[in-house]
Design goal:
single chain; 596 residues; alpha+beta; 6-stranded antiparallel sheet
């Protein structure tokens, strides 16, 4: 697991290329504290850099950027290939020899043998740049589930890439701010892909590669993988058996590591399943990490205790207090690569993981999105019906006093984006316009022009909700936040529920048995009901949350209306102090007016 950066720039000198890529990598040293490397092709003016977090092959042999045996291919790589041993064995049978025990070398030789087809053979979380000197091209490649980030910018002939948006500020190429980022942020609570806070810096789509031709500076982005949309499983019994088979395989694969490994354990259904499975395969060589609070309503320690008594894993529970929140608040903001209203909780638990000597942890992220664990799976039926009401009547919802009802206004959009924002949005266009002191039509046009895959129009209610949760909320917020918050501590987060084979399986199950109407995540529960205690199976969903509402009201550096010059912001913060506004909406205001 690493951080990567690179520049292709014919007008740069070799020394300048090396200097700028070094600066870019140094800005991401938190994500790769164990090693550093940078290489420059002086002929093609290609420079690749890597900051390494050593997890597989801890020796110097795993140093990056790594060259092929004939030095015609060089790679800078961030991630883990969980099936690298299987691929390695296949390549050895084909006559390849290996000098290291790293998965990095496997990527190089897989590409040498299979070419572009090799990308879809990789099962893992990854983002890499591969420079092929023979074909005179460079590839940027991102994993199938979009777990690892990869950003790029095209400036004339130049191509710049990095694992974090902040690194582009050190590229030597002047970056302009994206004038729409505050609109996106106040509407979504995050910046939706492919956009970033910088005007010409974009996120490479998941399951895609960018091929850049060095001969003429042209490039194209191609999809190398898409999850199945064909329904193959209609029998519940078969679905349950397959779910257990594939998730067990995923957890076993993702425990592969030459460094210490753990699991983020909240006490909820998803993390309990991952903890039980990981403990079964780790044979005691596992540490679970949990957060606890003085605020009793947020403590899940009783549920964790039930699972802890059943496993061999060591358990580390860390008390996080309001004082910890205030003391670390500025650092948390600094570590946000992109503005978000989420991820603070991940920052704290990964800090705990780091303090316990862990470099890699498993997470239960992804189960809610795949199996219908969120309230959005219920709400989407209601808003589908509301969407049939007169557009003029829907538009009047923005004048309602209730902030959740205000969001009904988004159903007047002629785009699925409006449906998502009705489900999960923060502020409506008229409020955003007042906050940013711009024309409301500017806000509406900006939000309606966000590109989405048209296939969503043909999905039924639960499938639509799942698509929104996977491709928008999880992709743009949860995964992105998890990556930069965990890597700010030099900790890697692995996500078994997003294993490529497991997701492919779940998407092939008929929605009538996949989504439970009366019981959330019913199919997942049925698969593991014999392994989980009754108290875990029957508990209500809580979510991995902190006492942020109380803490942020208490912290006057956030909640004092006097700190906000904008009249609308003052009014909203006053509502927040009266517990009439959710903390995430208040936090968005703070980021826009004080930490942008």
């Amino acid at each position: 697991m690493c951080r990567i950066a690179g520049i292709i720039a014919p007008n740069f000198s070799s020394e300048q290329l090396k200097h700028q890529v070094t600066l870019m990598c140094d800005s991401m040293a938190h994500g790769g504290p164990d090693d550093f490397g940078v290489v420059v092709d002086t002929d093609k003016k290609v420079s690749l850099g890597n900051r390494r977090l050593s997890i597989l092959d801890l020796s110097a042999a795993g140093h990056q950027p790594m060259f092929s045996d004939d030095e015609q291919i060089v790679i800078a790589y961030n991630g883990e290939i969980y099936n690298f041993k299987v691929l390695r064995a296949q390549l050895i049978q084909e006559g390849f020899n290996f000098k290291t025990d790293s998965d990095t070398e496997v990527i190089i030789k897989a590409y040498q043998f299979w070419g572009e087809i090799s990308f879809e053979k990789l099962n893992g979380i990854f983002a890499f740049c591969l420079h092929d000197k023979i074909k005179n091209c460079c590839y940027l490649v991102r994993d199938q589930s979009g777990v690892k980030p990869l950003y790029y910018s095209r400036d004339g002939y130049n191509l710049i890439f990095a694992s974090e948006v902040k690194a582009f500020e050190h590229s030597g190429v002047i970056q302009q701010p994206n004038e729409n980022w505050k609109i996106y942020y106040l509407a979504f609570g995050h910046i939706p892909e492919p956009f970033t806070t910088l005007k010409n810096v974009y996120s490479l789509p998941k399951g895609s590669f960018l091929k850049y031709k060095l001969s003429d500076g042209s490039f194209k982005i191609e999809s190398y993988f898409q999850f199945t949309t064909a329904i193959q499983i209609i029998d519940e019994g078969e679905a349950i058996i397959r779910i257990k088979e594939e998730l067990n395989k995923a957890v076993k694969l993702q425990l592969i590591s030459d460094a210490s490994i753990g699991v983020l354990f909240s006490g909820g259904l998803d993390s309990s399943i991952i903890t039980l499975l990981a403990d079964m395969y780790a044979k005691g060589n596992l540490t679970s990490i949990s957060a606890n609070f003085n605020e009793i309503d947020f403590s899940e320690s009783n549920y964790r205790q039930i699972i802890s008594e059943r496993v061999e894993a060591g358990h580390q529970e860390h008390l996080i207090t309001y004082r910890d929140f205030v003391y670390n608040f500025d650092t948390v903001l600094k570590n946000m690569d992109q503005p978000t209203t989420d991820g603070i909780n991940t920052w704290f638990v990964c800090k705990c993981a780091k303090e316990n000597g862990l470099k890699s942890v498993l997470s239960g992220l992804g189960a809610d999105e795949l199996f219908g664990g969120y309230p959005s799976f219920d709400r989407i039926r209601k808003i589908q019906n509301l969407g049939r009401i007169s557009k003029e009547l829907i538009k009047s919802a923005r004048f309602l006093q209730n902030t959740k009802l205000n969001r009904l206004y988004y159903l007047s959009f002629q785009s699925p984006v409006g449906e998502y924002l009705c489900l999960r949005g923060l502020y409506t266009p008229d409020i955003i316009a007042k906050l940013l002191e711009i024309d409301v039509q500017t806000v509406i046009n900006c939000l309606q022009n966000i590109p989405l895959n048209d296939t969503i129009r043909y999905l039924n209610d639960e499938e639509r909700a799942s698509w929104f949760e996977i491709n928008m909320y999880m992709q743009n917020q949860l995964l992105k936040d998890t990556d930069f918050m965990s890597m700010s501590h030099g900790v890697e987060v692995r996500v078994p529920f997003l294993d490529v084979n497991f997701v492919n399986l779940v998407t092939s199950i008929h929605p009538s048995i996949k989504f439970g109407v009366y019981q959330k995540k019913r199919l997942l529960i049925e698969a593991y009901k014999e392994d989980l205690p009754e108290q875990i199976l029957n508990r209500s969903k809580m979510g991995f949350t902190f006492p942020f509402q109380e803490w942020m009201v208490k912290n006057k550096e956030i909640s004092s209306p006097d700190l906000y010059q904008n009249k609308k912001a003052k009014k909203l913060i006053a509502s927040f102090n009266n517990n009439k506004l959710h903390w995430s909406s208040a936090f968005a205001l703070y980021k826009v007016f004080h930490a942008s």
